[in-house]
Structure to design on (630 residues):
């Protein structure tokens, strides 16, 4: 019975981790500008994430080591420090974006500018981590994140062209504006394939004390959870295609994205959008703060666990405290969270090889995984993700400059 | 046994299974004609930063003299205290006695415990 | 007798007695006895790196395709390694007298 409960909650966790400001904004922009044409990018990102998340959970369950533990031990500190620098720097930018997302949602609900929300939001995020346990954060934030199902309800209510949507699942090129199209596709992939989710998930498996008996459940959580999250991202794109594209609305301000559910759900749609962003970004902010703190703690050999009192893992607690405080500063200075979001998605794409290449080695390591090493299918998928990640790494920054 | 694969950068645990950091370095005694031997495990200090660049080690040492438990030399644990080498390296020591937790205890006492809800480290 | 940091030897280029490059130190083979941990030999070469990363599952197909010409390893017995200058480790013998380990 306990495993079944964890299964349900585990799936909800994946959804909360998948759908956040990056995936919503990029999907909404894609729908507003290109209709259904970029559904293939969300599909591709979802498939890649399913495999990566399943592998992250398997590594932790079998070896009782997180990805960070294994990266430090297998590759040594000098190489690890390069990975840490790249991944943490970009994750921090994503955290700023998520804190900004919470602020923007509160701006929509209250009329008070997001800059004024920077400090209260940071304090609330910090308090949840300071006083909460891993289970409370994991399950509480994810249950609240269920409000994002309203995206799917809105999309279906607007009677989409299912044939057109099916066509969108296959890659096509637009007639003109190829740079901007490419940039949007790159941003969607960067929003989907987020390394911090892998590090968080593998740490969560250790926090939840998984062992080899959790391998089947891990497959189900990864498969269904990420599929559901990808499906909701597609719903955002479809809703934007139906509500924003006909009106020629190109999302430059967050309030424009908030209109994407109003044709289907009227005034409720506006508020549901705000609450969906609020809870999705809150969940993401908690996960990213934890992921960064886990990176430092696991990599440098400190005690760590969200279930311990802060004084029992003081350096871990100090790290997430500082990270959250620093994350509020760009918002206090009035830097636009949407711009930070787009930049962070492009940079996530650019630094993806740093996370995925070592990961491929770890998933074939018989000392960590024994008979549960990757088979040819998983290795092929990771190889494809590495290929995609190198292409993204090369083109994402130039595209950001030209098309962003 | 292979030193880099099996020992270096591995997690250290004490006799009570308390985590006490990672193997940052290893002291090797060499002589003109005698067989080299590993004599100590090094934890923390500038050892880790020296592996990247001596300049970073110098900056880290300067910072650690200004702040924290003011220890810039790494903790040296005799190899004779190694009980077993497996997924982690298990030592026959008590973590608190080695100095490996000095930073952890300092941050707990001077920062975390001063914030409401931070809890308290157990006194020994 | 002097003390050196073993971890700082990793990646150091090793030259033989004639100054010819042999490879880089990637691993130490040691024997752990009750009394001491004794260094038996130093593994030098790309193959030693692959071994350290436990990466043979991935690299073996490439190695086969390249007919074993790229990945090689030398195991240098402790008595053949001169560590008087740890920043420039060198062999006491020419490379040609080394046993090719792979």
């Amino acid at each position: 019975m306990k495993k079944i409960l964890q299964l349900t909650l585990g799936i909800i966790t994946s959804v909360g981790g998948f759908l956040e400001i990056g995936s919503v904004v990029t999907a909404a922009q894609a729908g507003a500008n290109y209709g259904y044409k970029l559904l293939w990018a969300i599909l591709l990102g979802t498939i890649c994430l399913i495999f990566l998340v399943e592998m992250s959970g398997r590594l932790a369950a079998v070896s009782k080591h997180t990805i960070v533990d294994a990266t430090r031990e297998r590759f040594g500190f000098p190489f690890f420090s390069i990975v840490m620098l790249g991944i943490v720097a970009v994750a921090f930018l994503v955290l700023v974006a998520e804190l900004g997302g919470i602020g923007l949602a509160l701006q929509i609900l209250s009329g008070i500018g997001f800059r004024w929300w920077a400090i209260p939001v940071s304090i609330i995020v910090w308090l949840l981590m300071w006083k909460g346990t891993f289970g409370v954060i994991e399950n509480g934030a994810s249950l609240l994140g269920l409000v994002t199902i309203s995206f799917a309800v809105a999309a279906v209510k607007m009677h989409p062209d299912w044939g057109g949507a099916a066509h969108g699942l296959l890659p096509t090129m637009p007639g003109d504006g190829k740079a901007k199209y490419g940039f949007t596709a790159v941003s969607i992939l960067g929003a989907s394939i987020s390394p911090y989710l892998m590090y968080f998930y593998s740490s969560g498996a250790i926090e939840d004390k998984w062992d080899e008996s959790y391998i089947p459940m891990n497959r189900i959580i990864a498969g269904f959870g990420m599929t559901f999250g990808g499906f909701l991202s597609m719903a955002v794109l479809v809703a934007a295609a139906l509500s924003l594209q006909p009106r020629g609305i190109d999302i430059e301000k967050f309030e424009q994205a908030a209109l994407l559910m109003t044709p289907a759900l009227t005034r409720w749609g506006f508020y549901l959008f705000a609450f969906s962003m609020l809870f999705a970004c809150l969940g993401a902010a908690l996960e990213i703060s934890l992921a960064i703190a886990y990176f430092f703690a696991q990599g440098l050999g400190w005690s760590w666990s969200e279930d311990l009192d802060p004084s029992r893992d003081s350096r871990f607690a100090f790290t997430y405290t500082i990270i959250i405080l620093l994350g509020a500063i760009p918002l206090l200075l009035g830097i636009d969270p949407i711009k930070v979001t787009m930049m962070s998605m492009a940079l996530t794409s650019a630094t993806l090889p740093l996370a995925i290449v070592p990961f491929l080695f770890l998933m074939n390591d018989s000392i960590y995984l024994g008979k549960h090493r990757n088979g040819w299918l998983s290795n092929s998928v990771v190889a494809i993700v590495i290929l995609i990640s190198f292409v993204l790494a090369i083109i994402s920054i130039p595209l950001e400059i030209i098309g962003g | 046994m292979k030193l880099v694969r099996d020992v270096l950068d591995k997690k250290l645990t004490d006799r009570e299974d308390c985590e006490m950091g990672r193997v940052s370095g290893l002291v090797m005694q060499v002589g003109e004609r005698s067989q080299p031997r590993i004599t100590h495990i090094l934890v923390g200090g500038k050892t880790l930063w020296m592996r990247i660049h001596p300049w970073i080690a110098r900056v880290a040492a300067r910072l650690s003299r200004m702040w924290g438990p003011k220890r810039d030399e790494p903790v040296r644990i005799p190899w004779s205290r190694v009980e077993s080498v497996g997924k982690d390296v298990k030592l026959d020591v008590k973590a608190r006695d080695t100095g490996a937790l000095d930073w952890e205890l300092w941050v707990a006492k001077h920062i975390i415990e001063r914030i409401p809800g931070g809890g308290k480290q157990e006194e020994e | 007798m002097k003390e050196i940091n073993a971890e700082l030897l990793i990646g150091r280029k090793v030259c033989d007695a004639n100054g010819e490059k042999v490879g880089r130190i990637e691993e130490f083979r040691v024997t752990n006895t009750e009394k001491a941990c004794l260094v038996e030999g130093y593994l030098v070469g790309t193959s030693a790196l692959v071994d350290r990363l436990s990466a043979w599952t991935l690299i073996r197909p490439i190695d086969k395709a390249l007919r074993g010409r790229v990945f090689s390893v030398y195991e240098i017995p402790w008595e053949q390694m001169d560590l008087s200058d740890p920043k420039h480790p060198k062999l006491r013998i020419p490379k040609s007298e080394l046993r090719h380990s792979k």
Notes: The longest helix of chain A spans residues 67-110. The radius of gyration of chain A is 20 Å. Chain A has 17 helices and no strands.
